[in-house]
Known about the structure:
Chain B: Belongs to the ABC transporter superfamily. Chain A is mainly α and 250 residues long. Chain A has helices at residues 2-9, 14-36, 38-44, 49-82, 86-89, 96-132, 145-158, 160-172, 176-193, 197-200, 207-213, 224-247.
Amino acid sequence: MLFRTEILKIKHNFILWLIVTATFLVPLLTTLDFIDHAKDVIASHSDPWPLFWKEAIKGFTVFVGPLVIIMTTCMYMNIEHKYNAWKYLLTLPLQKSTVYVNKLLMALLLLSLLYVLFLLFFFLDGILLGLAFPQMGFLHHQPDIGGIFYLAGRTWTAFLGILAIHFWLSFRIKNMFINIGIGLTGICIAVLLFRKMEQAVYFPYIDGLLTVFYQYPGQHLFAKNEIYSLCVFLFLTLLSYFDFTKRFRG
Amino acid sequence: MERSPNSIIETVNLNFGFSEKEPLLKNLSLKVEKGAIYGFLGPNGAGKTTTIRLLLGLLQEPAPSITLFGNRLTENRIPILSRIGSLIEQPSLYEHLSGRDNLEITRTIRKTAPERTNEVLALVKLTDVAHKKVKTYSMGMKQRLGVALALLSNPDLLILDEPVNGLDPAGIIETRELLLRLNKELGMTIFLSSHLLSEIEKMVTHVGIINKGTLIFQGTLEELKQINRNAHIVQIKTSNNLSAGLLLEKKYPVARKEQHLLEVPFENKEQVAAIAKLLMAAGLDIYLLAVSGRDIEHTFINFIAENNR
Lengths: 250, 309
């Protein structure tokens, strides 16, 4: 029941627009790039889906992933701060643990929605390319659905660490822009550390990039950076749960 | 202190502070009887909101001393909160949503019947604008929506922090009539805070006055009025009210000290003469020395002034 109210809170909010715009933009830019290089794609006479997917997931992970995840998490959690609603929420007959779990589930749902829409636009753009340029072969080949979902799932996991960090910061820092600023700093450091992958694996902001640039395709179910991101998520979620239920007073 | 079976709110020697050196509440013993409209009065920073936050479990009491509906708050938080409707400071409203959506959120959490949304909207006269986004509402409409949220679950106890703060006179009258109706027709116990007695004087049955974290008066409004009937003040204007104020403060509780007017409570006419002599001896010219009875607001101000001495 509480989860339904969390969904209602994002109605008329910029969060949904941000998610739709960001997920629409990356496949669109990849599509435009394919149109620009249409002759090369047609000349290769090969299955265009793997290349189309590789470019799209790279664009998504670099340009959309960390920043949009940080922004949506911060904006969603900021709803309570902005309208001074924490104190009201905590005076309703609810266990604080229930409030925490529902907030976290909603943050995870927003992350998942980002992927659902991205994949939807990706397939749609592929089909449209196939219709507009039949010689490219989009309609003559089947996309590797399993492989696409597998890699998407791995990057989803690789982003969990970032989500946990900013989820915690979001109820502790009232000013959303400070939280986003911390995220941007993290992303900048990740870009600087990118060439030093060995050390960078322990820096959560780089985990998504590592999945698509270095660990692609995966040899195991999860790469080292994804397992590390999952551990960061579980550890920080546990800490923030106790912080919220024992110490947070709105 | 013996626990009264009729008490809806009871605190026994409640102490609270964010640091040990600066206690915000000192031995606060409140008692709010069933069916009362209890006005919790005090100047800004006296500890009213802190008390309300403690009553609602938003702040942790250092030792279990709060009892609501006869049960300890620390041990029965959820069942107690399910019987309370509250409004703390400014109403917490999601301004990007409509008034109806705001009510739906609380209604869903409180698991009340769907028709209750329309009932409370009608009660606070917001039915016609329920579909509009809250950011388009006036201050008074937001305050009424805040009250509607508090009323959704048909609570036994309503806790309102400064419910008429920022409202225009019409809004104050509307809120007053609504609260009186809830109290009379539904038997709702109401605990409301204010820093102005005049704003709530016409609706409260009981009064508690807090200053610097200490409860300095608690009783019925009649008891407060009785004190008022026995009290008088002398209004003074001199050639230098600042010096006069400082001089009088040494011997008398100065109720009001402003640049253009001083007010000093007195018990007999000899005291008035003594005040005049004191001012003359200090070389001050007296332009006004008027004796008058106090209204109830002055009684409240005087309580605070005496406590500040």
